[in-house]
Amino acid sequence: MPAPRRLLAIALAAPLLLASCTTDSNESGGDGGGSESGGGGDGDLSFSVITHGSAGDAFWDVVQNGAEAAGEDLGIDVDYQSDGDPTRQAQLIDAAVNQGVDGIVVSMANPDALQDSVEAAVAAGIPVVTINSGGDRSTEFGAIGHVGQDEAIAGEGAGRELAEDGARSVLCVIHEAGNIGLEQRCDGASTGLGTEVRTLQVDINDLTGAQSTITSQLQSDPAIDAVLTLNSAVAAVAAESLADAGSDAAVATFDLNQDVISGIQDGSIAFAVDQQQYEQGYLPIVMLQLYAENLNTVGGGQPVLTGPGIVDSTNVDEIADLASAGTR
Prior knowledge:
This protein is an alpha/beta fold. The protein contains twelve helices and 13 strands. The chain is elongated and about 60 Å long. It starts with 13 loop residues before the first helix and ends in a 5-residue tail after the last helix.
């Protein structure tokens, strides 16, 4: 399979981590909204994965798939839980600490809200790996590593891609208030584009309202020639907004789901920035096992990057063949 066009960053540590999956695997021991979902279950180790994903968000379903697959491969109990409210997410971390789990994986869209809970886990001797968001605070909080994409680098790549496609007036749609990673994406897009993008706040939990808000913005400013969404579900409604507003703007997005793949195939979406979130679920479980059994750490204080790369008309058909397996 040819490599994706214009690969922006490479997760160099991934092959090493994946190779470790076959080492001593026999010796070690969900769905969203706070419910329990296990992977593995035959070993002595128990890890909690606690994210800020909203229930039913296809992006986080893939993260969960990765974490649970790692648990199955390594014989480790993996409990996946999520809550989009940072206060409740912190409470899930506290509960995992009280349960005495052997390791915690946590996404930090709102690091300040989670700081006390993450630091309490570290103080209790529980290793923490952060994923997806909050990588710049990960070491500060005492985590042993971070797995994700660099949001600024990814945003710059998206901005450059839009500039190459001729965009000059870009609307960057933020779907979670207070998520610093999303703000970094928009800032990076401004850098890559060479001019400031305009930001628009919508609510990921109200996609109908998001579509209406985007439509109104396009109608009020016909000069907008591209809409950059930061979530695959929002990308789908943004494409509908173009028709509602009678706009010729292009749509580009971060992250993949089946609607985005179909949109790239039919031309209604120009491209997607893929951060390969399956790795964000899988790799931290490997890292925690290596630490628990051998005190190994990965990354040297730097994040383990899971991308990003550009998915567009040149490679989308190959990606589509993998998506049905729940790993893209």
